[in-house]
Design a protein that fits this description.
This protein is α/β, with parallel strands linked by helices and 220 residues long. The protein is built from 9 helices and 11 strands. It folds into 2 domains: 115 residues, NAD(P)-binding Rossmann-like Domain (Rossmann fold), CATH 3.40.50; 93 residues, Alpha-Beta Plaits (2-Layer Sandwich). 36% of the residues lie in helices and 26% in strands.
């Protein structure tokens, strides 16, 4: 996926997970087209996304009309029907969708999705359980997004020993192999902070790194 700036997303399937993804991406300032075959659900979601449409996502003509290749990512959230989920993902691959994220209902479903070339397979309940457990255990990790290859983007509180020190002094990249994407201080956000940026108590850092390294920060 392209990094930085406003992106365009297509979310197919508006159950609890799909609806949450669509609304959150819109709140983050991105453009979201949300789709479901149930018109009542589409009407409920419409006020919270860029555009919401009713349609049968297993119909290749319907998908073609959406121009799926133009979206930065397509999220397929119809795991309750394995056949439809697999069929939609296959159609998306044939239509050269750039990046496909699909929700799986079990390990077998996940293996099939991986075999047909889905870029990222997720188990929302399982992943949320992992994040909750780490948050409870570490105290520093506020929230995280699991990425492929054991990487995560996570929000962490500033450990006490980092307070009133600059990023350069702490040497986060070298010592912890983490990249600081932004620092939130109250209502202000500092994106890509420089090495001379001094951290304060109650700052919240958005960092990118491997899961093990985020766990190490949580033990500080």
């Amino acid at each position: 996926m392209r990094s930085g700036g406003k992106k365009q997303f297509l979310v197919i399937g508006l159950g609890r997970f799909g609806t949450s993804v669509a609304k959150t991406l819109t709140e983050m300032g991105h453009e979201v087209l949300a789709m479901d075959r149930d018109n009542r659900i589409v009407e409920d979601v419409a006020p919270f996304v860029t555009q919401a449409v009713q349609g049968n996502c297993t119909d290749d003509e319907v998908l073609l009309s959406l121009g799926v290749e133009s979206y930065d990512a397509v999220v397929v959230s119809i795991a309750s029907n394995m056949r439809d989920s697999i069929l939609v993902c296959m159609l998306l691959k044939e239509m050269r969708a750039r990046y496909i994220v699909a929700k799986a209902m079990d390990d077998l479903h996940a293996k099939v999705l991986q075999k047909i070339g889905v870029d990222q397979v997720i188990f929302p309940e399982r992943d949320m359980g992992k994040r909750t457990a780490r948050s409870l255990a570490t105290g520093q990790l506020l929230d995280s997004m699991i990425l492929p290859d054991d990487y995560e983007i996570g929000e962490i509180r500033v450990p006490q020993e980092w307070e009133d020190r600059s990023l350069g002094q702490i040497d986060i990249r070298k010592k912890y192999d983490l990249s600081v994407l932004s620092v939130r201080r109250g209502k202000e956000m500092k994106v890509s902070p420089r090495a001379d940026f001094v951290l304060r108590r109650d700052d919240v850092l958005l960092v990118l790194g491997q899961t093990a390294q985020l766990g190490e920060i949580g033990r500080l």
